[in-house]
UniProtKB/TrEMBL annotation:
Domain of life the protein comes from: Bacteria
Ranges of residues in domain HPr: 182-269
Gene3D superfamilies documented for this protein: Glucose Permease (Domain IIA), HPr-like, Phosphoenolpyruvate-binding domains, Phosphohistidine domain, PtsI, HPr-binding domain
A GO BP annotation: phosphoenolpyruvate-dependent sugar phosphotransferase system
Protein's recorded name: phosphoenolpyruvate--protein phosphotransferase
InterPro entries, sorted: Dup_hybrid_motif (IPR011055), HPr-like (IPR000032), HPr-like_sf (IPR035895), PEP-util_enz_mobile_dom (IPR008279), PEP-utilizing_PTS_enzyme (IPR050499), PEP_util_C (IPR000121), PEP_util_CS (IPR023151), Phosphohistidine_dom_sf (IPR036637)
Cell compartments where the protein resides: Cytoplasm
Species for this entry: Sphingomonas parva
EC number, UniProt record: 2.7.3.9
Reaction catalysed by this enzyme: L-histidyl-[protein] + phosphoenolpyruvate = N(pros)-phospho-L-histidyl-[protein] + pyruvate
């Protein structure tokens, strides 16, 4: 029988002996991660396990005192003699039963012995009404206690199921000293994809700069702010308010820095959202010999199958001793960190960004602590690391968030890289691949894609998703890739000739010779066309009837200039100067800016250079420029508004541009202008600064990105030296759709007739004032879009360097009167889709001519 006693006789928190937990009821033990409820599965309440019960009596798993009995009698919390608090929760969503079927036999304050009856319940009645009978058993004060389960499977009542021990001094949170502070602050998440991998990694990196213990809380879920994986497992969504708490001597400074990071500096964009390809959903059924999947990177390839499975699965469980295994783990982590740091510094931007995110995962404190805990219990470094990684992966999967679930690829990659180092080898793609190899695998990890780039002709995986880092890397490498092909992929033998049509989401296994001939001819024609376009890219661009169209490049770094010139750029129509300002702790000074602008001007070898003044705010924030929180950042302090708000930044940038030699090499373009007053303010500063050194002011133009600027283009052109239409932002503002929001991003299409009419108005306004009008948005990088822009009256286009050969080739195939007729027809269409169809249909004859 349970007996009542005063709280003063309860076991104190100073007790330190271990406590063995015994099964409170008979049934089937499973890992907590298998509980179909994210609060329990993700460990948000704490560590533990679950039992699917076979009897209707819940008994005490150990000696202790009853701390709490739920008013509906479906749950009870005990405090064991060593101070561990143990929650026993019968079933899922059983609070909704209002107590029906439950009979509590104890009350708060009662002392109980192991095996005492806590709650009797009607097993059948509760099973009929509850979502599940599975009963979580959780240690809720896990910051002080470690729980180790004995295993899973069938268990009898009162059988040992685990042990609860006080954490070591190293693992325990230090007791705050006299100078410590405890601070709490609420911040709002304004990220379309929530707190996913990259922003979580940046939060963790910032938290690690402070000594204080920092926690993040959402509702009743909590995570350490130094662990990006734990934060991702909270599944924090866009618009949610989170609570940050810090305890330590620098608590106030830590929370101020994190609040500024989260509310100001975290970019509200999907990982490489702009580069994410449109996907083609697999058909419900595919004909014999065809495997259906999802397009991750469009394209087609024919070649022999190479199966890739370099995973390390067999790992010895028993260790050689905690000290030896802990050192082995730390050595492996250090080696992987070194390799990733090299990739982050030396590779292209796509690879570097993903390597940086992986670097944070390798340095995740919670992940390492979970592995070390297992090592202390006798497991080997490899076994402990793999188990800890997969527990984290299970937590991400349990969120139900597709984007976070796809980040499991990154955890698996890091898991395998560390396992390989522990085993004394480096993971790599196959040393040799046959020509045109099509690589098939259950999964391909990001690091393997980097190794396969330029060596394989195509990739196809049984699992994965189209927005994973694998897809991003494959797109950067131009590698046709299909994902989510399913189990049928396993039966395709090594060496089989396949046709991978990633664009339509089909893998044709051992296709007929006629199909292969047609596919190879199409691939060869596509390659030949691209080669021809590259060969002709250096020549100036004229339409078929001789109209001159200047094709510039959009640049975002010093190293882009040479590549742009090699691709056929006739200058830079848009230098995104914010590349100098992002991802750093302070603004670049005048000398640093001047050196960068001068290097780009030199790289262009005398060609024109248009520098856009700092364009931040909205989805591009600076940690050192704390813009006040805005409910609608895209409609607040952005572009020129930030420059006029912080004129010292504008002055320093203008001085740096004016110093570029020879004088007059650079032109300056102001972003996000909505009226003449903003242009006049910038011109006043430009002329004043030029006058200080006795020089002439550079040409000053306006970027037409707001509907207001497009409508007032004739007025703005009276004082602007040139206009350049930024079709990306103009589209989102015209359609009132955020292009960084995945829910509507596919509809933010610059081919929309409303956008085209605004472009036409801007072009006409500039023409009437005799000012040149160009375009530097994504529409200018699309060959079909280029035809429309020229037809609407533009004579200067600035495109992504890689798109320049194709844009020039397309414009050379049409006459100026054809462009104008196509554009006029497009203005009368009723949707972006109909505009695309009309342009494609009109250009079909010239398309045939280009391929001939």
């Amino acid at each position: 029988m349970a007996s009542s006693s005063s709280p003063s006789t309860a076991p104190g928190p100073e007790a330190s002996e271990s406590v063995v937990l015994h099964a409170p009821l008979p049934g089937w033990v499973s890992a907590l991660g298998e509980v179909p409820d994210e609060v329990f599965a993700q460990g948000m309440m704490g560590e533990g396990l679950a039992i699917d019960p076979l009897a209707g009596e819940l008994r005490a798993p150990c000696d202790g005192r009853v701390v709490l009995v739920a008013p509906t009698s479906h749950a009870v919390t005990l405090k064991s003699r060593n101070g561990a608090e143990i929650l026993l929760h019968i079933g899922l969503d059983t609070v909704g039963l209002g107590g029906r079927g439950f009979d509590a036999r104890v009350a708060a304050g009662d002392e109980v012995r192991r095996g005492d009856l806590l709650i009797a319940f009607d097993l059948d009645a509760v099973a009929l009404e509850a979502r599940s009978l599975i009963t979580p058993i959780i240690v809720t004060n896990g910051e002080r206690f470690l729980f180790s389960a004995s295993g899973t499977g069938a268990v009898d009542a009162d059988a040992p199921i685990g042990i609860v021990r006080l954490r070591s001094e190293i693992e325990a949170t230090a007791v705050p000293g006299p100078s410590s502070r405890f601070a709490v602050r609420e911040v709002r998440i304004a990220l379309p994809n929530g707190l996913h991998a990259r922003p979580a990694a940046r939060v963790a990196a910032t938290a690690k700069q402070f000594r204080s213990e920092i926690r993040m809380r959402v509702g009743d879920r909590e995570a350490g702010a130094r662990s990006p994986v734990s934060m991702m497992a909270l599944d924090v969504r866009d618009g949610q308010t989170i609570e940050l708490s810090a305890e330590g001597g620098d608590a106030d400074e830590a929370l101020a820095a994190l609040a500024r990071l989260i509310e100001v500096d975290l970019p509200a964009v999907e990982v490489h959202a702009a580069a994410a390809p449109k996907t083609v959903a697999p058909a419900a059924a595919a004909p014999a010999g065809v495997i259906a999947g999802v397009c991750a990177v469009a394209g087609m390839a024919v070649g022999p199958v190479v199966r890739l499975d370099g995973r390390i699965e067999e790992v010895a469980r028993e260790g050689r001793g905690p000290a030896i295994e802990a050192q082995a783990l730390d050595d492996a982590l250090a080696a992987v960190c070194s390799a990733l740091a090299g990739a982050a510094a030396d590779r292209d931007a796509t690879v570097a960004g993903i390597a940086t995110a992986h670097l944070e995962l390798v340095g995740d404190e919670d992940l390492r602590a979970a592995a070390l805990k297992r090592i202390d219990e006798g497991e080997s470094a490899g076994f402990a690391w793999r188990a800890a990684s997969r527990e984290m992966g299970d937590a991400l999967k349990a969120t139900g968030n597709r984007l976070l679930a796809e980040r499991i690829d990154d955890l698996r990659d890091i898991e395998q890289q560390v396992l390989a180092r522990i085993a004394g080898r480096e993971r790599d793609a196959p040393l040799s691949l046959p020509e045109n190899a099509i690589v098939l695998a259950d999964e391909i990890l990001p690091s393997q894609v980097v190794a396969l780039a330029g060596r394989a002709a195509g990739l196809c995986t049984a699992g994965g998703g189209p927005t994973s880092h694998v897809a991003v890397l494959a797109a950067a490498a131009g590698l046709p890739t299909m994902v989510a092909a399913g189990r049928g992929l396993a039966v395709v033998a090594e060496g089989t000739i396949v046709l991978l049509d990633a664009t339509s989401g089909r893998l044709h296994v051992d296709p007929a010779a006629e199909m292969l001939d047609i596919a190879r001819a199409g691939i060869a024609a596509s390659h030949a066309q691209r080669r021809s376009e590259r060969d002709d890219a250096l020549a100036e661009c004229r339409t078929a009837d001789g109209t001159r169209i200047e094709i510039f490049a959009n640049l975002g770094a010093v190293t882009d200039a040479a590549a742009a010139v090699a691709a056929g750029a006739e200058g830079c129509g848009l230098l995104r100067s914010e590349f100098l300002f992002l991802d750093r702790d302070s603004a670049p000074d005048e000398d640093e800016q001047h050196a960068a602008y001068q290097a780009i001007a030199d790289g262009l070898d005398g060609r024109p250079l248009i520098v856009r003044t700092l364009d931040v705010g909205g989805d591009k924030a600076l940690a050192y420029l704390p813009i006040p929180r805005e409910d609608n950042p895209a409609l607040g302090l952005r572009g020129v508004r930030v420059s006029l708000w912080r004129p010292e930044l504008l002055d320093e940038q203008l001085r740096a541009i004016l110093r570029v030699t020879p004088a007059g090499r650079c032109r300056i373009m102001v972003p996000m202008v909505s009226g003449l007053d903003e242009l006049r303010a910038v011109r006043a500063r430009l002329e004043a600064l030029a006058g200080e050194n006795g020089g002439a002011a550079a040409e000053l133009g306006v970027m037409v990105e707001t509907p207001a600027a497009a409508i007032l283009a004739d007025q703005i052109a009276t004082e602007a030296d040139f206009l350049s239409i930024g079709t990306n932002d103009l589209t989102q503002y015209a359609l009132a759709m955020d292009r960084t929001n995945p829910a509507v991003a596919a509809q933010v299409d610059a081919f929309h007739p409303a956008v085209l009419r605004l472009i036409a108005a801007a072009a006409e306004g500039g023409r009437r004032r005799g000012k040149p009008v160009g375009a530097c948005g994504g529409l200018a990088s699309d060959p079909l879009g280029a035809v429309l822009l020229v037809g609407l009256g533009l004579s200067e286009l600035s495109a992504a360097p890689a798109a320049i050969p194709a844009v020039k080739a397309r414009l050379r195939s049409v006459r100026i009167d054809e462009c104008r007729a196509i554009a006029q027809w497009a203005l009368d269409q009723d949707s972006a889709a109909s505009v695309r169809r009309s342009v494609e249909d009109a250009l079909a004859p010239s398309e045939a001519g280009m391929k001939a």
